[in-house]
Amino acid sequence: MTSYRQELEKYRDIDEDKILQELSAEELAQLDLELLEMDPENVMLPAGLRQRDQTHKSPTGPLDRAALLQHLEKQALEAGERDDLVPFTGEKRGKPFVPKAPAQEVPREEQVTLEPELEEALANATEAEMCDIAAILGMYTLMSNKQYYDALCSGTISNTEGINSVVKPDKYKPVPDEPPNPTDAQETLRRIRADDGALQDVNLNNIKDIPISTLKDICEAMKTNTHVRKLSLVATRSNDPVATAVAEMLMENKTLQSLNIESNFITSAGMMSIIKAMYKNSTLSELKVDNQCQRLGDTVEMEMATMLEQCPSVLRFGYHFTQQGPRARAASAITRNNELRECPGKPPHLWAGSLLTRSLWGAGGRAGARRQPGGLVLVRVELGVLVLHPLAGAVRDPAGAEDTRRGR
To answer: What are the entry keywords (predicted)?
Structure first.
């Protein structure tokens, strides 16, 4: 039994051109008809393209589409109308429309009787006056909010067109855009280097074309400046190199009190350098670092809270914490710092019960009980500050011991 491949070997040396030359004209026409590719299932094609040509007649003439449409229209007009298969009997379906009965009158005992003067005033009131009366009586469902508040807030009749009037929007005065910051960065840098005594507030906010090198030079000049109290670099496209320069400036400058670097491109690494530099600064009381290009992270927020707890000079800190723990610690630290600044002469036991002391009661530190003239007090050392808590209702030591500290 021969295989399929061996059967194909017989047709390998066949000359197709020789076979076609030996076919007659009728056989060639039949071959062309068999080789036509038709799609009989496609109903979107005309009949002539879905099947083979089965007629041998010659066409009578070219297709005239306009003449064909005219013939069809004439034939349709001449044809008579056919009768309906189901004649109309005049039967009505559905329910006839019956109007609703008029509203019943209010019983006499429920009718409200007004004084003749009020009835006459209401009868002669205009639509605008009725709108104001409805607003005064609190019928806010009969009108829009704008009509209601206009009637209450204005001393005159404001809704002149009545309750059913179209509410028109208020016309607000156009507010022009704020002019650009006119500060000259190069001139400001020159005055900072010269330690100009008249220059105490440096505002470079929203100046987008300051080179990074100029910002670094400003921070370098601020190291030795003794007059500038406030430095603001908001939206100046500052990045981590500028943040590093700011950190170096904070470690050496002893006069700057307010620093604002919000809305910049400082990452967590640059912000960490600024926060760590705050440990060596004792004069800065306000620091704003919010709205950076990316999230600073939990590690930076924890370092911020630690810095605020260990730097009592910081009274205002501008940053939106994303975690509850650092947020609570920072709020307590800021509260403590402001209490220490506002009441520097008060004894410790008057501010020992503050929010910070209560919230950080379990934060560690040394604790003990000591006898005072007013009774026993609880002594704690928190963050380097001695905190005294009077013990209400404490029993005096019967042995008269002077010091009962424990947990040293």
So the answer is: Actin-binding, Cytoplasm, Cytoskeleton
Angle between helices 298-310 and 268-277 (to 10 degrees): 10
pLDDT tens-digit map of 292-328? 999 999 999 999 999 999 999 999 999 999 999 999 9
Q: Where are the beta strands (DSSP E) in 199-278?
A: 201-203, 230-232, 258-260
Rounded to 5°, angle at Cα 213 from 262 and 244: 55
pTM value > 0.85: no
CB 230 within 8 A of CB 201: yes
Q: Which residues pair with 386 in a beta bridge?
A: 381
Query: What CATH number labels 185-342?
Result: 3.80.10.10
Q: Which residue has the tokens 């990316």?
A: 294
**pLDDT tens digit string along 365-407?**
444 444 444 443 444 444 444 444 444 433 333 333 333 333 3
DSSP-derived letter for residue 169 is P
Q: In which band, very low, low, confident or very high, does the pLDDT at 109 lie, cut at 50, 70 and 90?
A: low
User: Mapping DSSP to helix (H, G, I), strand (E, B) and coil, where does residue 44 land?
Assistant: coil
Parts of the chain belonging to CATH 3.80.10.10: 185-342
Burial (Cβ within 10 Å: 0-12, 13-18, ≥19) of residue 210: buried
- 232-251 burial, b for 16+ CB within 10 Å, e for fewer? bbbbbbbbbebbbbbbbbbe
Per the CB < 8 A criterion, the answer to whether 305 and 326 are in contact is yes
Alpha-carbon distance values, 177 to 82, 173, 234 (Å): 77, 13, 18
